[in-house]
Amino acid sequence: MKIGIPKEIKNNENRVGMTPAGVFELTKRNHIVYIQTSAGFGSGFFDEDYQEAGAIILNSIEEVYASSDMIVKVKEPIQEEYQLIKPNQIVFTYFHFASSEILTKAMIKSDAICIAYETVEEADGSLPLLIPMSEVAGRMSIQQGAKYLEKPIKGRGVLLGGVPGVPPGKVLVLGAGIVGIQAAKMAAGLGAHVTIMDINMKQLRYVNDVMPNHVVTEFSSEYNIRKRIEESDLIIGGVLIKGAKAPKLITKDMLKNMRPGTVIVDVAVDQGGCFETTKATTHEDPTYIIDDVVHYCVANMPGAVPYTSTVALTNVTLPYVIKLANDGWEKACENNVPLSKGLNIVKGKVVYKEITEAFNWETEVT
C-alpha cells in the first residue's frame, strides 16, 4: 500500500503522524511511504532520518495526498486539506467529529474512509490510541495551569506546592479517567492539595487506593462541584464521553463563584469542552479571561511537546497502520473489532451513531 504522511498545518502543531522507526516497519514489509519534506522537523526528525528508513520525500502536501492510498496524520484535516482527500482514500487520524459539523460534512462529501484514533476501542472499553495523548495532556494540564496561576499572566499568584508556613494550592480535577489521574499525579507530585471527582465509584476507589493522602476523591454532582470551585486555585476538565460531546460541568454562572485569578484548563476542548465558556485556543494565544477566570483551552496541548507525543503516538498507532496496510481497511476491520470501532465515516455515510446524535441528525447509521 502507498502510505502518505503530510506535514501538519494546524496552528502550532509540531507533531508528525509517524516516526522514522514506524516508517521502517512499513517499508520492510514492502509498503511505500511518502512523507512531505520537513514534516518531522518540529518533532526532531529530519528528512534524512526518514530516507534512511526507506521513505520517499515529496515536496508538497498536494503530492502526498495525490500519491497515497492511506493518509496517516495526527490532527483532523483543516479546510485547506478538504479538497485534497480522494474518494476511497483511508484517512487515519484524530478526528473528534462531534465537535465540528463543518469537518463532518466535508469528510462525508469527500467519500473517504475516515478512521478516528479516538474511537478505536478495546473489549474492556479502553481507547488505546487516545491513552498516550491523554497521558500527555493530563500531565501538561498541571504544568500549564501552574504557570498561568502566576500573577504576571493574571493568575491568583499561587505556588501550587506552597512553601513552609504557607498552605499549598488547591487543584480540582473533574474526571478520574486517564487525563484526570495523570493530572492528579502531577499536581500531587508538586505538593498541591488535590480533589478528584467522578460519577464512577469504581474509578474513585482505584484513585483512592493508588494516590497519596493529599489526593482526595469526591462523587461528582453539580452541588459538589459548585462547592469545590469556590476554594480551588486550578480546575482541570478531563471528562470524556467516547466519540460524543463532553458534558458542560461548569456553567458560565458558576464563574462568579470562583476567586479572581482562578485558572481553568479544559482538556476536553477537542470534544467541545466540559466548561460552558470554553472556546478552542492555540499555543500562540492560549488563554482568555471571562469574569476574572483564566481559561486555558488549547485544542492540541500535546503539540507543545512534539517529540514525546510523536513517539508515544506511533507506539500505539503503528500496529493498526500495519494491519490496514497489509489487509486493506475492509479486511482489517473485519478481523479486528477494536479497529472496526474506529470507523466513523465510510464513503459518504456516517457509521458512528454518536456523531449523528451530536448534531441531532436523523440519518440512519449502520
From TrEMBL:
Keywords: NAD, Nucleotide-binding, Oxidoreductase. The active site is at 96 (proton donor/acceptor), 270 (proton donor/acceptor). It catalyses: L-alanine + NAD(+) + H2O = pyruvate + NH4(+) + NADH + H(+). InterPro entries: Ala_DH, Ala_DH/PNT_CS2, AlaDH/PNT_N, AlaDH/PNT_NAD(H)-bd, NAD(P)-bd_dom_sf. Substrate binds at residues 15, 75. Residues 4-137 form the Alanine dehydrogenase/pyridine nucleotide transhydrogenase N-terminal domain. GO terms for molecular function: alanine dehydrogenase activity; nucleotide binding. One of its GO terms (biological process) is L-alanine catabolic process. NCBIfam families: alaDH. The keyword Zinc does not apply. This is Alanine dehydrogenase. NAD(+) binds at residues 134, 198, 220, 239-240, 267-270, 298-301. PANTHER family: ALANINE DEHYDROGENASE (PTHR42795:SF1). The keyword NAD applies. Belongs to the AlaDH/PNT family. GO terms for cellular component: plasma membrane.
